[in-house]
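Justification of resources, computational component.

The compute hours requested in this renewal are based largely on the per-chain cost of generating structure records like the one below. Each record pairs the submitted sequence with a full structure-token output. That output is archived, and it is also reused by downstream analysis tasks.
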Amino acid sequence: MRDAMRMALTLLIIGAICGGLLSVVNGITAPVIQARESAAFLEAMQTFFPDGADSETKEIDGEEFYLCKDASGKFIGVVARAKAAGYGGEIFYDLAVSDTGDIIGIRISSHSETPAIGDVITKPEFQDRIIGLNVADPISAGVDVDTVTGATISTSGMIESIRRVMNIIGENFL
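The structure output for this chain reads:
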């Protein structure tokens, strides 16, 4: 009985030390990770809208929308920071839409999809099916955009989310 108590106490102490160390490491790395994510997003915005000089942020239905303007203040498009439900969890992505309502770019910023199956959402073969679609298009799985065999949950989730985001953009910004 005494040995069991000693082992339990030892494991408790080791667990507390490990938990504390993980907390410290997280505190150190979280700002670095956030800074890198912000830099990657700004780089993507510059790629989507090279003439962009300013942006204004709006939040609608839990999604962030960046209204991009050129140097003269003219609205040139919007970038949505959105999420979709995938097979492996949430898929975070950026969707760029021109002032005429056309999708001009997509960037998957984070996902947990199965390599070589669900991660097809990051590949040009899938993304090229999305780019060029307009806010007026139905954007539905199997009609405008084919789902990818073996990755129907990931691709269908992305397509549904893109349609939802395009509806928000069409109703609020175009």
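The mean pLDDT is 87. The longest strand covers residues 75-86.
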